[in-house]
Amino acid sequence: MNKYKILALGILFDALGYVSFFIPVIGEFSDVVWAPLSGWLMTKLYKGKPGKIAGVVTFVEEALPGLDVIPTFTLMWLYTYVFTKNKE
Q: Which end of the chain, N or C, is less surrounded by CB atoms within 10 Å?
């Protein structure tokens, strides 16, 4: 998959994680569904050990209240395609 398509998906997934802030009370319960799903999606976007570690980090970040503001998918994209020297 193209790295810019992964970036677009990451931004979309980060935005979905922000939904819990816009819906009072119900929003935090949506994290019960979104946390494991976001962890799984992270492991599908990024393969290998970095993807697994990022999946766990994303799961924990989405599961704990108040941490949804961290754009984990976008940060992982930056780590993968900007800060490391991986080839496409």
A: C
